[in-house]
Amino acid sequence: MSETLRTRCAVVGLSPRSPFGRAKPVTEQPNTELVAVCDILEEPARTVGEEYGIPWYTDYEEMLKQDDIEMVFIATPDAEHARQSIAALESGIHVLCEKPMAISIEEVRAMLAAEEKSGCKLGINQVLRTNPRMVEAKRLADSGYLGDLFFGEADYVHNISNLIRTGWRGRREQNHTPFIGGGCHMIDLLRWCMGEVVEIHAYGSKKCLTDEEYPFMDCAISVLKFESGACGKFGTTYGCQRPSFRNFMLYGTEGTYLSGREFDRIRLNDSLDDIIKVELPVKGHPYGPVIRDFAQAVIDDTAPPISGRDVANSVAISLAGDLSLATGEPQRPERFDL
Question: Do 181 and 319 belong to one domain?
Answer without folding.
Answer: yes
